[in-house]
Amino acid sequence: MKIEEVKSTVKTQRISSHSHIKGLGLDENGVPIQMAAGLVGQENAREAAGIVVEMIKSKKMAGRAVLMAGPPGTGKTAIALAMAQELGNKVPFCPMVGSEVFSSEIKKTEVLMENFRRAIGLRIKETKEVYEGEVTELTPVETENPMGGYGKTVSHVIIGLKTAKGTKQLKLDPSIHESLTKEKVEVGDVIYIEANSGAVKRQGRSDTYATEYDLEAEEYVPLPKGDVHKKKEVIQDVTLHDLDVANARPQGGQDVLSIMGQLIKSKKTEITDKLRAEINKVVNRYIDQGIAELVPGVLFIDEVHMLDIETFTYLHQALESAIAPIVVFATNRGRCQVRGAADIISPHGLPLDLLDRLLIIRTAPYTQPEMAQIVKLRAVTEGLSIDEDALSELSDIGSKTTLRYAVQLLTPSNLTAKVNGRSSITREDVAEVGQLFLDAKSSAKILAKHQDQFMK
Prior knowledge:
Blueprint: E1 35-36, E2 39-40, H1 43-57, E3 65-69, H2 76-87, E4 93-97, H3 108-118, E5 120-144, E6 152-162, E7 167-172, H4 174-182, E8 189-194, E9 200-206, E10 220-221, E11 229-239, H5 240-248, H6 256-264, H7 273-289, E12 292-296, E13 298-302, H8 309-319, E14 326-331, E15 335-337, E16 345-347, H9 352-355, E17 358-362, H10 368-381, H11 388-400, H12 403-408, H13 410-419, H14 427-436, H15 440-449
Helix pairs in contact: 1-2, 3-8, 10-11, 11-14, 13-14
């Protein structure tokens, strides 16, 4: 008897610097657990972030802003991403870096407004008449080509749909046959066809076929209940930026010249305030009618000290708008010059009038035991085995240099361990790698010592 192991067909994701973060790691009372959901320490900052998340969920915080301030490598971006995880997929989260506003194609204010609109979601509820079921028959009926020639054209398509309650045979327009071909619909797939528009949506393969051998990873769905022809509530999530783009770039004609024009045209088009005002009117009308619901999301601006005085003044107006997201800023600067205003020195490089609007969350440097926990967590995330001695050595390096540098040494140490014929990282491997690479402080010392050898 042959026993085979079935390997998962789920794609493995590449590991990034914050892959291990799954949430804020708070208990049911909103009190932070020392190490949970990928976060370690920073209890005060996490508890404050938890309160902000609750305010966002209860929709009591639109148009407010939070500033996360602390030294480099203290988990500001990690806490912001943890907030996004806590809010879930349905709440838009738009991360950006302060320097993104300096574009050669479009204005600084346009980049900011574009990201503001990306962070505001709209949940549209529609009741549609649909035909839904498992495809039992799919027969295109061909006739002679009316234009002459040898080819034949599809005059109509016969499709059989089955649900738990009954079956129905439909005779559909040839344009729907094209949609079925595009969606790669086959017998045994569960689909729904909108009665008024003829749009086809393939939901997956019927779970009665789940036992079959399949090369590709298929999504199996249960057989729909109720009648084949029914009224169905369809919920669609879009952002205001999606609506802006859809209306700013209407599709041209189908001739070659207009298609070429669309290809040649620059991808970045500035969206006018007039167009946005019109879209806002339509959105407000939908909200008043109860068709749509506004979902204010989170705009995260990292390295906010990179913005200049013009963008800060624009932020005031944007935050006061009736439809504004929650803005989370992050910076690692202390007192410094406000960019674009040489005579203004301000805390965190932000003008004082903007600082007045912010709730400030402070992150503190990690202790050595916390660094050891983070390094261990990263090793687990990256699938590496590490000894306790090597862990204490790396946390020691982290306290002398930076946590980021200590984490960077993990992968080279693992490769050195493999070369030396070991399955887990030891203190010797860390020491060996430490001699090959330099951190910023060591490099600065060497630079000071051999200053004359470097180019002036």
